[in-house]
Design brief:
Helix content: 25-40%
Strand content: 15-25%
Distance between the termini: 43 Å
Structural class: alpha/beta
Order of helices and strands: EHEHEHEHHEEEEEHEHEEEHEHHH
Number of helices: 11
């Protein structure tokens, strides 16, 4: 199954309508999910809040905001992501990121900047405790028994009692278990320090590279590392990340683009050409088993996403390489990922809060 996703980033855009236009366009094309970048290093609206606004105005597209695990409280982060899953009826994801600069650290004044290795280790611990907190409510913990006045079955709530290198969390969560069990966790695994966290905790890993051999090497490494952590490698989706500039319409891709592969730029790997050659690139890399799909960032958001959906995606659908409708309603279903079992319910553990 080919997976496609797109970024809906728009510099200096603060109105929800412009983001909604892009999300609905991506949904019309049947894309798995859209992402919205966020960082303490630059001004902009809160990505999770924006996508929460888009949730009731869309029906199938997955919604994946970037939320850093540095300088934030793990308990609050997991509750916010769980809430997005509830308001979207099971379409939430979370792109896990870290904040490495001293400028970002000064915004909070609680700690100094730390090396990327240490921050990604912490990010892994946040991902771990988030899953535990999502499971701290069993699926049937909410009973709403009016005659007895009992809202929850307290035997089905659990302390997580997590202690990491820089934080500890007792739990349980304040939000019932999300519709997906665990909202989808996404990690950009291009840089080495993030790969261990991606292999151990991510459902989707993004890889930015300019050639098929580069992407294939990282994918193979991630799958091998996932297996070492006791995970089935097929439960990790690896998507190639590309900037796309489709301003040349139907003209052939520039040299170094199209079927020959993207070109490295300061902003990342860039494809510049027409929708047809982009479809060929996608079909070739996926058909050869190099990637599970693509995460595409339009250079000109509205123009390039329109040409992506109406040109590239339409061609892939015509060739039977990409779906023409959503077979399910949750982001996990789009990605072909099972809903995780509750780790406390399956072990029979009982911890009275």
């Amino acid at each position: 199954m080919l997976h496609l996703s797109a970024a809906v980033d728009q510099p200096s855009a603060y109105d929800a309508a412009s983001y909604l236009t892009l999300a609905r366009l991506a949904e019309r094309g049947g894309l798995d999910f859209v992402t919205l970048e966020d960082s303490f290093a630059r001004p902009g609206p809160d990505a999770l809040a924006v996508l929460a606004r888009l949730a009731p105005a869309t029906s199938r597209i997955g919604l994946v905001p970037t939320v850093t695990t540095t300088h934030t409280e793990p308990f609050h982060v997991q509750a916010a992501v769980a809430t997005l899953d509830w308001v979207s009826r099971g379409r939430a994801g979370w792109r896990i990121d870290v904040s490495t600069t001293e400028g970002e650290a000064r915004l909070f004044g609680r700690r100094q900047a730390a090396p990327a290795d240490a921050l990604w280790q912490e990010a892994g611990e946040v991902a771990d405790v988030a899953a535990k907190l999502w499971d701290s409510w069993e699926d049937d913990a909410v009973i709403r028994d009016v005659p007895t006045g009992r809202f929850i079955d307290r035997d089905k709530l659990h302390h997580v009692d997590f202690r990491g290198t820089s934080f500890s969390v007792k739990g349980p969560s304040i939000v019932p278990r999300p519709p997906q069990g665990h909202p989808v966790r996404v990690v950009d695994a291009t840089d080495g320090p993030a790969r261990r966290t991606a292999a151990r905790y991510a459902d989707v890993a993004l890889v930015r590279a300019t050639s098929a051999p580069q992407v294939a090497a990282v994918r193979n490494q991630l799958r091998s590392m996932a297996a070492d952590f006791g995970r089935h490698p097929d439960r990790l989706r690896v998507l190639a990340g590309l900037l796309v500039d489709l301003g040349d319409g139907e003209h052939a891709a520039e040299p170094g683009h199209g079927g020959g592969g993207p070109r490295q730029t300061p902003q990342g790997p860039l494809y510049r050409g027409g929708p047809v050659d982009l479809a060929e690139l996608i079909a070739t890399w996926h058909g050869e088993g190099i990637v599970d799909g693509f995460h595409l960032t339009p250079v000109e958001p509205l123009r390039d996403l329109e040409r992506l959906v109406n040109g590239t995606v339409a061609l892939l659908q015509h060739r039977g390489l990409f779906r023409t409708f959503y077979p399910g309603s949750s982001l996990r279903e789009h990605l072909g990922l099972a809903r995780p079992a509750n780790q406390y319910a399956t072990t029979g553990a009982r911890h009275e809060p």
